[in-house]
């Protein structure tokens, strides 16, 4: 039996994996922030010298409250949490927090938006952009595929299912390209439940070995880590092993509990993620 002390990840006392009583009126204390630096230490990252900028884009599909006459309002919401915020927000706690609006009476959409923004800023420790769109405004969402090469069509043998950065290689002349895969699967850091997503790599630098990149992405298949942490690990491993001049990595994770999380990390502000949902979202 191993006597190693388990690494702290910040979610040990979160609501994940625990029975939770649902509250139906405003309850900002339900939000559970997690220090990003705990996992960034594993990657050798310093808070004041991150190799990337970016954000975590959250889409919320189950938001409702009561107007002042008691009539329900239903809406979509979007939250943008900057990657340089000191804390991320644990997803189940955000789900519970949003559900706590179900019987809360609010004057208008602006009031709800301001309340949520205030609470997310306090939890994340940085400015968080919040946009709420009631369904009466008929919001539209569309899925799309990245403009690039899908690695999933490669025929190859794979036998590694824990992150293996030594699978990454780059060589030859500089290219600019976008590579992506729908085969990303990792597991929740606390519960071990599967997380499914698409991961996109956009870079300028020596040509990456495509088979090696696909094997590397599949190697996360039994790995336990939060969405944001997986994307940062991929970014840092590619940066270290392949030395691109410019690099952007983002993921589109499928929803759980009425939320999907879409982390985006880039070395340059001009290198942006494509708009649009992944088809499974």
UniProtKB/TrEMBL annotation:
<dbReference type="InterPro" id="IPR016428">
    <property type="entry name" value="QueF_type2"/>
</dbReference>
<feature type="binding site">
    <location>
        <begin position="91"/>
        <end position="92"/>
    </location>
    <ligand>
        <name>NADPH</name>
    </ligand>
</feature>
<dbReference type="GO" id="GO:0008616">
    <property type="term" value="P:tRNA queuosine(34) biosynthetic process"/>
</dbReference>
<feature type="active site" description="Proton donor">
    <location>
        <position position="195"/>
    </location>
</feature>
<dbReference type="GO" id="GO:0005737">
    <property type="term" value="C:cytoplasm"/>
</dbReference>
<keyword id="KW-0521">NADP</keyword>
<dbReference type="InterPro" id="IPR029139">
    <property type="entry name" value="QueF_N"/>
</dbReference>
<feature type="compositionally biased region" description="Basic and acidic residues">
    <location>
        <begin position="1"/>
        <end position="10"/>
    </location>
</feature>
<dbReference type="GO" id="GO:0033739">
    <property type="term" value="F:preQ1 synthase activity"/>
</dbReference>
<feature type="domain" description="NADPH-dependent 7-cyano-7-deazaguanine reductase N-terminal">
    <location>
        <begin position="22"/>
        <end position="132"/>
    </location>
</feature>
<dbReference type="InterPro" id="IPR029500">
    <property type="entry name" value="QueF"/>
</dbReference>
<keyword id="KW-0963">Cytoplasm</keyword>
<keyword id="KW-0671">Queuosine biosynthesis</keyword>
<feature type="region of interest" description="Disordered">
    <location>
        <begin position="1"/>
        <end position="21"/>
    </location>
</feature>
<feature type="binding site">
    <location>
        <begin position="256"/>
        <end position="257"/>
    </location>
    <ligand>
        <name>NADPH</name>
    </ligand>
</feature>
<comment type="function">
    <text>Catalyzes the NADPH-dependent reduction of 7-cyano-7-deazaguanine (preQ0) to 7-aminomethyl-7-deazaguanine (preQ1).</text>
</comment>
<dbReference type="InterPro" id="IPR050084">
    <property type="entry name" value="NADPH_dep_7-cyano-7-deazaG_red"/>
</dbReference>
<comment type="pathway">
    <text>tRNA modification; tRNA-queuosine biosynthesis.</text>
</comment>
<dbReference type="Pfam" id="PF14819">
    <property type="entry name" value="QueF_N"/>
</dbReference>
<dbReference type="InterPro" id="IPR043133">
    <property type="entry name" value="GTP-CH-I_C/QueF"/>
</dbReference>
<comment type="similarity">
    <text>Belongs to the GTP cyclohydrolase I family. QueF type 2 subfamily.</text>
</comment>
<protein>
    <recommendedName>
        <fullName>NADPH-dependent 7-cyano-7-deazaguanine reductase</fullName>
        <ecNumber>1.7.1.13</ecNumber>
    </recommendedName>
</protein>
<comment type="subunit">
    <text>Homodimer.</text>
</comment>
<feature type="binding site">
    <location>
        <begin position="89"/>
        <end position="91"/>
    </location>
    <ligand>
        <name>substrate</name>
    </ligand>
</feature>
<dbReference type="Pfam" id="PF14489">
    <property type="entry name" value="QueF"/>
</dbReference>
<feature type="active site" description="Thioimide intermediate">
    <location>
        <position position="188"/>
    </location>
</feature>
<feature type="binding site">
    <location>
        <begin position="227"/>
        <end position="228"/>
    </location>
    <ligand>
        <name>substrate</name>
    </ligand>
</feature>
<keyword id="KW-0560">Oxidoreductase</keyword>
């Amino acid at each position: 039996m191993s006597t190693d002390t388990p690494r702290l990840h910040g979610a040990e006392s979160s609501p994940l994996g625990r029975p939770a009583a649902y509250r139906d009126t405003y309850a900002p204390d339900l939000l559970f922030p997690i220090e990003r630096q705990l996992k960034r230490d594993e990657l050798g990252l310093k808070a004041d010298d991150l190799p990337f900028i970016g954000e975590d884009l959250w889409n919320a599909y189950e938001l409702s409250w009561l107007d002042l006459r008691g009539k329900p309002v239903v809406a979509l919401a979007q939250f943008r949490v900057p990657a340089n915020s000191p804390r991320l927000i644990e997803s189940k706690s955000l789900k519970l927090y949003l559900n706590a609006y179900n019987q809360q009476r609010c004057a208008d959409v602006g009031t709800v938006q301001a309340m949520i923004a205030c609470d997310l800023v306090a939890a994340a420790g940085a400015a968080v952009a919040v946009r709420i769109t009631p369904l009466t405004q008929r919001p539209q969402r569309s899925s799309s595929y990245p403009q690039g090469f899908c690695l999933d069509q490669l025929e190859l043998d794979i036998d590694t299912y824990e992150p293996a950065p030594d699978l990454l290689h780059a060589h030859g002349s500089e290219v600019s390209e976008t590579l992506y895969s729908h085969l990303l699967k990792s597991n929740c850091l606390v519960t071990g439940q599967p997380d499914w997503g698409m991961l996109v790599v956009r870079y300028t630098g020596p040509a990456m070995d495509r088979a090696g990149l696909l094997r590397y992405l599949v190697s996360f298949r039994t790995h336990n880590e939060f969405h944001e942490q997986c994307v940062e690990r991929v970014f840092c491993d590619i940066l270290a092993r392949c030395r691109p001049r410019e690099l952007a990595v983002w993921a589109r994770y499928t929803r759980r509990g009425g939320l999907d999380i879409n982390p985006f990390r880039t070395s340059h502000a001009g290198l942006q993620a494509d708009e649009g949902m992944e088809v499974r979202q």
